[in-house]
Every structure is written in C-alpha cells, then in structure tokens.
Hints:
The chain has helices at residues 19-35, 52-65, 78-88, 118-133, 150-164, 187-194, 219-229, 256-267, 298-308, 346-358, 385-397, 399-406, 453-471, and strands at residues 4-5, 10-13, 42-46, 70-72, 91-95, 104-111, 114-115, 147-148, 174-180, 198-204, 233-237, 244-248, 271-275, 290-294, 315-318, 324-326, 330-332, 335-337, 340-344, 374-380, 414-418, 423-427, 431-437, 444-450. A hairpin with a 4-residue loop joins β21 (414-418) and β22. The longest helix has 19 residues, at 453-471. The chain is built from 13 helices and 24 strands. By secondary structure, it is an alpha/beta fold. α1 packs across α4 (118-133). The chain is globular and about 65 Å long.
Amino acid sequence: MALKFGTSGVRGLVTELTDSEVYLFTLSFLKHAESLGQTSAVALAHDLRESSPQIQKAAIRAIHDFGRKAILCGKIPTPALAYYTKKKSCLAVMITGSHIPADRNGIKFYLETGETLKADDQAIYEIYESLKKAFPGLPPIKNVTPENAEKEARGLYIQRYLDFFPPNILSGKRLLFYQHSSVARDLYPEILEQLGAEVIRVGFSETFIPVDTEAVDAVDKFGGWIKEHKADALISTDGDADRPLFVDAGGSVIPGDKIGTLASMYLGCEAIALPISCNSGIAEMKNFKKVSLTKIGSPFVVQALNELEKEFDSVGGFEANGGYLLQSDVTLEGRKLESLPTRDAVLPVISLLALAKKHSLKTNEITSLLPKIYTSSGLIKNFPTEKSLGILETAKMDTVKFFSNLLKDQNLTLLDVNTLDGLRCRFKGDVVIHLRPSGNAPEFRCYIEAPTQARADELCAKTTEALKETSA
C-alpha cells in the first residue's frame, strides 16, 4: 500500500517507510517550503518508537543534500518541537506515528508559519510523485553532525507554562502520571511538579504502547491506581504527547472535547473551532460567541482558527482527542501565553486543573460546568479501510434501513444526517451515532452521544460489536 497523508502528516507501515521514501517526502517538503520563500534551517525530533531514529536519519540526509542545516531537538513532544520552530522561525520535521500501533509510523511537517495544511500536503505529495518517477536512488552517504538543541527546545517548552500559570497553582494536588512510552514521560511530570503538584509516576514501559486518548482501554487499571494512591487525577498523553489523557478522582475518563471546552473557558476564548465529532452541546454554550465545526484533523481546525481570528481577539480550538490549539496570545492576571496553533497536551490539562481550583471543584465535579450531554467512543482495530468505506456507502444509500438492521433492538428514529466527515446521524431521544474510518490506520471509529453516560457506553458497545459482525 502506498504511503499517503492522513489526518495529520504522512502515515504508513514501518516497512513502507523506507530510507528512500522518507528521503523523497522530506525533499518534497523542502522544495515546497522553498517555493513559499522559506529557506531556513530544519529542526527535527522523534517519539520513542523503535523505528523512529532510522526514519530521522533518512530525513537528515535529505535536509543535508538539499543544502539546509539540520538541528536535532531529540526526543521531545510534537508541540515542543512546534514551539521551538515558532521561536526560531525555522522549518521542522517530526517523526511520529502518534497513537497508532508500533508497526506503523509517520512524518509530520512544519513550515515557518506552523503545521502544514491540506493544500500544503497536496502540493508536497505532487512534488513527491514527480520526484519518484525520476528518482535514481539514494546518493552516497555523507557524514553529517547536526547541531543538538534538545536542551534548549525542552527548556523553552517547559518555560512556556511556568511563565503563564501562577506559581504553585497545583499545590496540594496529588497527581499520577502514566508514563508508558510517551515521549513526554519525564518532561510533563517536571512541569506539574514545578507548578506545585505532587506527582507519582506509574506504568513506565520499555516497549511502545499505542495509547489512544479517544479509545481508552485500561480504565479499570487507572481507577485502581487512583484509589491506591488517593490521587486527585491520573494524567497521560499519546505517544508524541499532543493529545491528553485525563482520568478524574472518581476513576472516569474526561473526554478530550470536554477537556478542550473547559480549557477554552479558563483561557477566556471568545470563539473556538472543533471537529464535528465533538460533543454537540458545545455549540450551544453561551460561553463562546462563535463555535466553528470542521472536518476531523488538526489542519481543518487550524484553517477554521485562521478564519475566526479575523473576527475575534481570543481564539482557540481542540479535537475530540483533547489536543488543544491556541490561535491567539492570551493574557491572564498580567501573565502572557504565546499562541501555539498545533495540538498540545499540556495546556488543556493544567487549564482544567486551574479552572477546578478557581471554582473550588474536585476533578470529578468539573464537568458539572458543561452541558449534560454524554459521549462514548469506540475503535475497531485491524479494520481495512475498504470495508469501512463500503459500510458507509451502504449506510448512506438507505440510512434508516442500515441502522434498523445494525441495531435491531434499539428502535431508533432517524431525525437527520450529516456527511461532512463520515456519517453522523441524529436520532430521537438525544442520540447521535457518528461512524468514520480512521485517516491514519486501518481502523473504524464510532462516536456516540446520549442523555446519560450509561446509555452512551451501552450504545457504543452495541454499535462497535454490530459493525464487527457486519464485516465478518
């Protein structure tokens, strides 16, 4: 299967990400950047996957051969690399597969203006296809010793939060940090501790664990840890630390879109942008002057943020996975936070904790500030994209019949259908079922809304199970 751009960056099997393919994609990115007049140095970083260092080597080779300076930022989060490039006005290449399985990986590109948007990705891919047709093979290897800036990049990212949040804002909080194989497993706890929290590190892993913050499958274990340590919350991220995981004091996962909404409230955003897969109650909230709904993927959210910034002074956005994108600089109590319009896992969680403190609420009480609409999300792994697309086509042809067959015992009455991204159906009884193939891996996702958490979880389980049987 050919490599392609997913919802965010190039993704594919490790066996497909050969030195030649990585070289060509990196070269294509540099040529596109040059066409935009961007000829600066290129910063690189990577996550903790076993395949990432070799992919980075091939990218460095392309950067050197193209006559650009490579700057190594080491093993740091994607948003930390993005922040470094913003401060240094340079290009960037992040080697990461984010939350997808270890047999896959990816490359994410950043221009001097921020992460590439869909038009950039299309241009890069067209250059790649043109180069590949005449590619003679990799040129001879040249010894290259790039500048090392890991300490500086790491320090800038940490200082971003220490400069904005009041000192000791997390004092009195006992927080668990689930380290697993997150590239932020040492950096993130350090930030929390410097803001006054007591941090207990748990779950360190030498092997890569593909943590998906939209389909958390270890809730009982997390709840047990919280109870054992009498913690206020458990915090973690996905592999490249641009998506947060937050489990409250009661052992319940707070969904990413709720984390993002609470963060937007704390930051005082006038307008926000978010994918259509997020909780529909957010669009009805009076806290925001405007809510823009987009297709799924950070490039679409960034495009919407660019438009909102023309109308409003304070603009932010997020995805259902909780990754937060801050479009505007924010100043609270005289302390300034610079914008960072790429997914970030640190800002939303600390903002949530700060908001809880402001309202004297426990972490398992903070969602009381939000609309009483409950969500649940399911993920079917190893589900070929062709099957997913086939199911969606069948569902679109006769949606009523499709759901009558899929969920025979639910007696669902269809009200309307939205096909902006996948198939999002609203039914009587305040129920929403949203089906969509993953843009990054052979996986099928379903997003559910219901009037109670129990109903949302039940319907999610029934829908995912029925979809598995349908494709069998």
